[in-house]
Design a protein that fits this description.
Blueprint: E1 10-14, E2 17-20, E3 24-25, E4 31-32, E5 46-50, E6 53-57, E7 62-64, E8 70-72, H1 74-79, E9 85-88, E10 91-94, E11 101-103, E12 110-112, H2 115-118, E13 127-132, E14 135-140, E15 144-149, E16 152-157, H3 160-163, E17 172-177, E18 180-185
Antiparallel strand pairs: 1-2, 3-4, 5-6, 7-8, 9-10, 11-12, 13-14, 15-16, 17-18
């Protein structure tokens, strides 16, 4: 079986037919599935969608159980956690529903970790890091677009001269460069390329 557009998070099972890995959807399995919006809902109380998965957490005063259910807990109610709590060796600890969140100074609320500025996130060549609440993702650098070439997804240079997204003067030539473009005034004209006289 061959899939001309590839299956980003899945496998090719028939001519241009993708079978997505759990947590992903779309014709080429390139979209994250928001499990929190499914019926029946996967979590008893609250749900946080993550890339390719989801996390359950409980309302204040409840404790997250190993099976994902929430059980009323007087100790949790006393601690007043934002995202529910767990009991470890008789001690109550507040929880954060994602590895990209950390307990704030008060030990009850969760604050975002900016993986992009701390250097925890590593994006491959030609990709830039975009921070989100509780996580991050890698996006093509400006001047590049995601394309399926030679069996995988790559960030490929956008040829602004061909796509007509350049802002060169009518009397200038457009020259494509990696990730950008240049404008050069035609013979008999002078200027920056954006202005030619």
């Amino acid at each position: 079986a061959t899939c001309g557009h590839g299956c980003k998070y899945g496998e090719c099972t028939g001519p241009n037919k993708c079978k997505c890995f759990p947590g992903f959807t779309g014709k080429t399995c390139n979209q994250d599935l928001n499990e929190c919006g499914l019926k029946p809902r996967p979590c008893e109380h609250r749900c946080m969608n993550t890339h390719g998965s989801y996390k359950c957490y409980c309302l204040n005063g409840y404790m997250l159980m190993p099976d994902g259910t929430c059980e009323s807990s007087r100790t949790c109610a006393m601690v007043n956690c934002q995202y529910g709590c767990e009991e470890v060796e008789g001690q109550v600890q507040c929880l954060c529903p994602s590895g990209g969140l950390q307990l704030g100074p008060n030990g009850r609320t969760c604050i975002d970790i900016d993986e992009c500025s701390t250097g925890k996130a590593l994006c491959s060549y030609n990709r830039r890091c975009v921070n989100t609440f509780g996580s991050f993702y890698c996006k093509c650098q400006l001047g590049y677009e995601l394309k399926y070439t030679s069996g995988r997804y790559n960030c490929v240079d956008v040829n602004e001269c061909v796509t007509n997204t350049h802002r060169c003067n009518l009397h200038a030539e457009c020259l494509n460069t990696q990730g950008s473009f240049q404008c050069k005034c035609k013979q008999g004209y002078q200027g920056s390329g954006f202005d030619c006289a």
